[in-house]
Amino acid sequence: MQGGLRLATTYSGVRPSPAPVLVAFAGPAPQRRVTVFFRLILALPALIVFVFVSFAAFFVAVIAWFGALVLGRLPTFAATFLTGYVRWGTRVTAYTALLTDKYPPFTLENDDAYPVWITAQPGPLNRWAVLFRIIIVLPAAVVSNIVQQGAFSIVAFVTWLIVLVNGTMPETLFQAYSTAVRYQSRVTGYFLMVTSEYPWGLFGDTETPFFGSPPPAHGAYGASGTGAYGAGAYGAPPAPGTYGAGAYGAPPAPGTYGAGGYAAPPPPTPGTFGASPPPGTAPGAFGAPPPPGTVGRYVTPPPPDPAATFATAPQTPPAPTPPFLPGVAFTFGGPSYLWGYTDDRTFCGIWSAHDLNTQPQIWPITEQGDGWTRFRELEPNAVALAEPTPPPTVSPWGQVTTSSYGAAPPSAAAGSSYAAGPSPADDPRWRIVLSSAAKRLIVLFLVLGLIVIIVNRNTFNGHFFQGVVANVRVQLAYQSLKNGVSTYDSSTSACQGTATSLSCITAADRTLAQDFSSFEQTVSSISVPAGAGTARSTLLADANLGRSIFGELADSTTIGQYEETFQSSHVSQLLTKLDQDEQTLTRQLS
Length: 590
What we know:
By secondary structure, the chain is mainly α. Among the domains are: 16-265 and 399-412 and 422-434, no CATH class; 464-589. It has helices at residues 33-37, 39-71, 76-96, 127-131, 133-151, 154-166, 171-191, 368-378, 436-495, 501-524, 533-554, 559-569, 571-589, and strands spanning 22-25, 116-119, 328-333, 337-342, 347-352, 361-364, 383-384. The strands form two sheets. The protein has a five-stranded antiparallel β-sheet with strand order 6-5-4-3-7, covered by helices on one side. A two-stranded antiparallel ribbon has the order 1-2. Helix 9 packs antiparallel against helix 10 (501-524).
């Protein structure tokens, strides 16, 4: 192939290189406005169930952590459950973030019919990395938190309004939110030890696809059961030819059926599910499920045979032959325009299909997302072009063996220049290539997230210190009032039996009334957080009532008047309530 980069095909049972949690999206699709309007309410059941699943995941993760320290890998049950947990959470987040209108399934298993695909590749773990997992993951977790704070701030509300009006999410927003959700899933997956690959890809994938090599066949990466160790035994990317099989936003490898982010699968061949019935077809045949083993447009292929000695490349329909232009490899085309790459893979661009010598529109390879978006606008019905040379007959992603999870991988074939297979993250179906506008949105998420965190922290710190100071002042003022009540009890006891007992007692009442007045003035001058305002008002009302009662007692001129006022004022109940309300206020200030 001219200018193509072909991977070695001499692997013999080698496992792929480590890959992070892989996430692919079907791309923006029409959404029902009524479900968009009530999205948060509709998402509540899924969120509530996910909370309970998270409790179970916590205990599994604790057990898995000890197991990984001993075994150097996750126990099988933990790898299965925690990978499913990441998958579940990603689907719930994608639905809540308006990336899909399809309700997330309540399952840990793969669901190729759902337009968000998640898989991971559990494998060997460094015990030191397991021991210090929380410390190691902290930088990525901080970045993820900042992104989430920014993505789900005012931007989320604006996005909700846009989707509500348009009925679909714009490409740029979809790209940015897809990458944010994927990064969050990768951080979670790394923290839960379902992968040894540190989270990356916040700004999307900018690598050039590996032209000339087919994507892994169904089961070559992610087969369950007895698939090759390290081959991603807990989930597979959507099968070639199924709906939305492409990694959103990336040009697929040439000749790959359905591998493009927006490239619709070619029309189904006559006789397959989804095709128009041929003339003379008996009634009822149209739309019937295909016979067993048929791979139709909307039909998931049968599971791979665990006993297969290697994973074969997917069968693809014939593709048009690309035109020849020295120094350029064309990978997609339509009636008017062609998409291609320079031989050195440093530039990509759009050529006129009518005159190849016309000046093309060129983008650096790092900006191929912008170019690809423009190409899809000019040629929405473009199809993948055939490769100049046939693809290899053996998948470059490694053979599927029957080794169990945790077994040592076979050594590389003799003469192979690779000790391990390529990373499954190199598969174009898992690649998300961002446009420049989407990258700027990610930067906006980071900036807004920092602002939100700083504002929240300052608000918290302000309320915290304000509460601490107010708490100390209230307690000091109340202690002074309690000392006045104790002095009052001693004074009234000393006044009993004296000739001037009434004047003695009323003098003590007057002093205590002044103590209540001082307490009321002090508490009213204390600045408290808004949440403690009601409790302070209640305490001030108690202090005001105490000042009034003891002031009235101090004005008594006869013993009978004093006793009548004392009995009607319920002084003991007032003091009890005052003590309770003071404790309530101090608790709120704490």
